[in-house]
Amino acid sequence: MEAEVRDILTRAATRPHIGLALAQAAREIGGMSELQIPERTDPARVVDFE
């Protein structure tokens, strides 16, 4: 299970929208089938923590 989670997080971190990437990864393993996620067209933004 750890390897599967690590794979999901690794793939998610390399995509522009991490939340959408996690949702796609969950769909690929058979979860979240009823969750409706609208398509995003806005670019990813850099977070400023200052």
Task: Explain what the structure shows.
- With 50 residues, this protein is mainly α.
- The chain has a domain at 1-30.
- The protein is 46% helix and 0% strand.
- The protein is built from 2 helices and no strands.
- It has helices at 2-13, 18-28.
- The protein starts with a helix and ends in a 22-residue tail after the last helix.
- The model has no long low-confidence stretch (mean pLDDT 78).
Question: How are the SSEs ordered, and which strands pair?
Answer:
Blueprint: H1 2-13, H2 18-28
The number of E-state strands comes to 0
**DSSP helix fraction:** 40-55%
Structural class: mainly alpha
- Name the beta content range: under 5%
Mean residue pLDDT: 78
Number of helices: 2
> Which stretches are poorly predicted, pLDDT < 50 over at least 5 residues?
none
Shape: flat
Please report the distance between the alpha carbons of the first and last residues: 36 Å
Radius of gyration, in angstroms, nearest whole number: 13 Å
Largest beta sheet, briefly?
A: none
Element order: H for helix, E for strand: HH
Keywords:
single chain, 50 residues, mainly alpha, 2 helices, 46% helix
